Amino acid sequence: MNAPQIRVQAAAFDQGAELNRFSSAAGPAGAVVSFSGIVRDEGGMLEALEIEHYPAMTAVAIQAIAEEAARRWSLTATLVIHRFGRLVPGEAIMMVATAALHRREAFEAAEFLMDYLKSRAPFWKKAFTAGGAEWVAARDSDEEALGRWG
Questions:
Q1: Residue 130: is it exposed, middle or buried by C-beta count within 10 angstroms (0-12/13-18/19+)?
Q2: Structural domains in the chain (count)
Q3: Model confidence band, residue 118 (pLDDT cutoffs 50, 70, 90)
Q4: pLDDT at 148
Q5: According to the 3-state scheme, what is the secondary structure of 14-75?
Q6: How many CB atoms are located within 10 Å of the residue 81 CB?
Q7: Torsions phi, psi of 69, nearest 5?
Q8: 94 three-state secondary structure
Q9: Strands 5-9, 77-83: pairing kind
Q10: Per-residue pLDDT for 141 more than 90?
Q11: Which residues, including other chains, have CB under 8 Å from residue 15's CB and lie 6 or more apart?
Q12: pLDDT band per the 50, 70, 90 thresholds, residue 1
């Protein structure tokens, strides 16, 4: 198992290039799963999403959960990229990639990481619309999703 790669950054990233680089370094993996989150504008009103974090806490927290995923599912490689700063609809906000000998482990580990990032990673989001700005509240469905991992 390679040490999980964690990047918390303001800069945009190329999802295809990241996946190609990750896959080529995934060791003896028989399966690679990736997920990219995109800033969405469900109601057509979002101008921007601003993501804040506490750097000393964020990378450490994500590293710990990525290491747990790597142990639980015997991953050969793990990648988590999460952006902060001001993002507009359509921009990639994050990416998770997992590699394992078999697809089930890679899929489950990726879902575990996504559920964690949505509900526990120390990021704070503020939505900006023409009507003003407001902090984005946690969703009950995100908490419920995390509960399945015990």
A1: exposed
A2: 1
A3: confident
A4: 80
A5: CHHHHHHHHHHCCCCCCEEEEEEEECCCCCCCEEEEEEEECHHHHHHHHHHHHHHHHHHCCC
A6: 23
A7: -60, -45
A8: strand
A9: parallel
A10: no
A11: 34, 36, 92, 95
A12: low
Residue 144 vs residue 131, higher pLDDT? 131
Q: What is the CATH number of the domain that holds 104?
A: 3.90.1170.40
Which of 109, 84, 91, 76 is closest to 14 using CA atoms?
A: 91
In the chain, the amino acid numbered 113 is: L
Extract the tokens encoding 120: 């526990």
Sheet holding 5-9, edge to edge: 5-9, 77-83, 92-100, 31-38
Tokens representing 105 are 């482990």
Place of tokens 């750097």: 55
Quick one: tokens of 130?
């023409």
Range of the domain at 39: 5-147
